[in-house]
User: Fold these one by one.
Assistant:
Number 1:
Amino acid sequence: MIDKDVHSHHISQQFNAELDTVKTHMLEMGGLVEQQVRDAITALIEGDSQSAETVKVNDNHINSMEVSIDEECTRILARRQPAASDLRLVIAISKAVIDLERIGDEAGKIATQAIQLSESGESPRGYKEIRHIGNHVGFMVRDALDAFARFDVDMALAVAKEDKLVDEEYGTAVRSIITFMMEDPRTISQMMNVIWALRSLERVGDHARNIAEHVIYLVKGRDVRHFGIKEMTAEVNDK
Amino acid sequence: MIDKDVHSHHISQQFNAELDTVKTHMLEMGGLVEQQVRDAITALIEGDSQSAETVKVNDNHINSMEVSIDEECTRILARRQPAASDLRLVIAISKAVIDLERIGDEAGKIATQAIQLSESGESPRGYKEIRHIGNHVGFMVRDALDAFARFDVDMALAVAKEDKLVDEEYGTAVRSIITFMMEDPRTISQMMNVIWALRSLERVGDHARNIAEHVIYLVKGRDVRHFGIKEMTAEVNDK
């Protein structure tokens, strides 16, 4: 009987270590993805096509991290058959890596716009907006990952709230660029590059929000993906 | 001993029924999502804001289908602890519903563009392209779902190949609209509505490809998401 207890204690220690490892890998992937977004924005603003190329090359590494973390999750499901909060952790990680990979894709798309702009000449408008919204969504990604690391639902809720602001900032920025396009149509294609980059940043905000929602699912056991902010707040505050 | 066999046979029959049910629910969701895309395109082309509003309202139903199918998957993981191909089926379904939900979102975005166009007046360009690319990605979604229903990897591979064509058609369409914008900047905002709708359609193609990749994972046990078409073909043909 004692032997069996020691044995199962050992098993559960190993299991906990596996869960910690896969969570750490996901957070490492998150750190890289966050950096990719920042590097892509800098490359675009500075017209640095070489840095933009580096962002595109790095995306392959992020893709392979996604595949390997996903395999870790599947292995845990198959061998450990987790239940309750352990199962939710594995599910939340496997969903978060999908969002992280998509954020990486968006960084790659911003890098593509940076390369096109460095070839065709600067856009007359939109850099200020890219810097501003870029910073905003960069913080959201960082906070969503911190919330995941600490299982902090209040922080996760704050990230979800920020996404609404980003959507508004994005809408305002695009409208003002379109107005300028009509006034000065000669540089439409450069302004389109800026608009595509802004669109990518807005998508990064959406994915940060998704990650925040996975944290709430993980801690609270409730899928809040299609909740409004009001319902989500009620769920988080429901101790 | 016989009793136990009968019992486990019974359990496995129930389990198979649960797997069939969740797969059926996913395919039903897929059918609705496919219809949403077609309805959104028709609403945009015909300038029918009322149909566009219906598409937006229906999206709530699709969102709740996603949540409930996801719960079914989690319940199966927790209670049945599936292994091997059963586990892959549950994982593939839970990933496919994420893509289906995103396709539903894109249909909603196309509906938003349809409403804006019906208010601001027609775009002078782009309807032909929307119809053409819309048909193309509509067939891709249908074929991806059929491939999932029949576990048909050859059909899945064909869908993945189509996505490359859609990307090219999309690129050509957007470039030609941007050229026209420069010539006639007065209708830029209407043409931007068309460009956003085209972008959404291109994203629908990406998600159809993702679903096709889940089918290959499910049948072949290999994650082909970041493979090129050549590697993917080799994987599918490797009996």
Number 2:
Amino acid sequence: MLRFRLLSFSLSPISSSSSPVFKPHTRNRFLFLKKLSSQMGSYTTASDSQLSGSKKLLFRQLFEKDSSTYTYLLADASHPDKPALLVDPVDKTADRDLSLVKELGLKLIYAINTHVHADHVTGTGLIKSKVPGVKSIISKASNAQADLLIEPGDKVYFGDLFLEVRATPGHTLGCVTYVTGDGPNQPQPRMVFTGDALLIRGCGRTDFQGGSSETLYKSVHTQIFTLPKDTLVYPAHDYKGFTVSTVGEEMKYNPRLTKDEAGFKGIMENLNLAYPKMMDVAVPANMLCGLQDVESKAN
Amino acid sequence: MLRFRLLSFSLSPISSSSSPVFKPHTRNRFLFLKKLSSQMGSYTTASDSQLSGSKKLLFRQLFEKDSSTYTYLLADASHPDKPALLVDPVDKTADRDLSLVKELGLKLIYAINTHVHADHVTGTGLIKSKVPGVKSIISKASNAQADLLIEPGDKVYFGDLFLEVRATPGHTLGCVTYVTGDGPNQPQPRMVFTGDALLIRGCGRTDFQGGSSETLYKSVHTQIFTLPKDTLVYPAHDYKGFTVSTVGEEMKYNPRLTKDEAGFKGIMENLNLAYPKMMDVAVPANMLCGLQDVESKAN
């Protein structure tokens, strides 16, 4: 059974607007259901809500060239405070991202990672140091440090929009995938931020950081390929210049994940990839939410 | 007064499906208006048509890393033949683009350039050699060779969707900008493919190929900044990892185009840029629709 937990950032004038609230499980299930119910009352037809849903979401895909990393900016543009979050920010491009957030008049509340990256240093530490009040998020299963440790079934709210957390281990043991909500006021088609679990026509390697090809195969097939086929796939990396795919496309054309499990394992065991260049720098830094935290602790 | 011309690719079973028809002016004005009228009859409300419009368009942004070029794939996914076009394809990534076209079940009919590029060789020649029937398009003002030479006010149809041609010289003398239609069955918000005339928070250089900072300033202000503010801006390049902007954003934050004309000219005259590395290879090739054409003529 799915567990519902709510990561809500209170934006009412009474409570502090710089302290995201991580509510305990039982109460949040109630809050989540109540929230959904009140949203549903605002719309009468499916097509109207789809249109409204997509108009509410302000979305930007951003690229960091050295590590070919995609960072995603999402905001609820219909909310008075325009609360926003960044998925997989990179330290090198943190200033670019923050400048964009400012120009668009957004209030950044979360800096989120899909997993402990081995190829770049996360921007979360730097962002937190530059924008007080921003909370870092990573999965509890990653064993990394962050302000909020999320678990499968959790919902990360930004305004009236939310990302649902799905466990997709296999590239690392703590990988999660974030999916936009399936409520009537959420973006249509849905969008899935897959980290390195599923790349466009590929997937992340499985030979480090608790990786397992068997686990990754199950993760993608049970947690991502079960989404509607028109769900837009936004990965953490692309090395060929693709920006987006769909679940249906990857189910049909992903050269690795379309194989059976044995075939997939065979491919992953014979990739013969070099040791990740940035790994020995990036992983220790990312376990602490970015190199900036490591440095500040050392001083 | 706007001139209406129609670039229509006949997809009826009677006529040849591999010969785009470039109709003369007078007749096409009639055809264009007739086409629009029949589309309008299908929809009853603004919100419905907006939703349908965006659902009809299959859109992909593709990146070529060496020259930081964006190629755009657009198709009418609701049309039985899924007619498609590529804007600013690059020779190096032509195979990637054609593979995607095939996987998505599209029928590529046009390979279009915004201008004669100086930093990469266009993919149009290679694409034409690999996919018989595809027609290359460039502006008449560019003085380059292509199957179809378009002029301001022309409309390039792919299925029931179209791109409108706007003259935006200044980076080169033949630069054009393509804008998705403003009809009721066209994508909302509109999308503008600006080539190098307007980049995200920047613009193309004006010191080669008949460039003129004065002309570019007028082009952007009269042809692009007059579009609705929510129009999505898709440039031919980005060097900082941005993928999209809006007209409203550029009107507010573009560090060059927000200046007055004298200020803009001053900036452009003092960029002190190096001679374009690829220019002596790319421009002669692109004047003939891609190096492949040059090679085949030489053999």
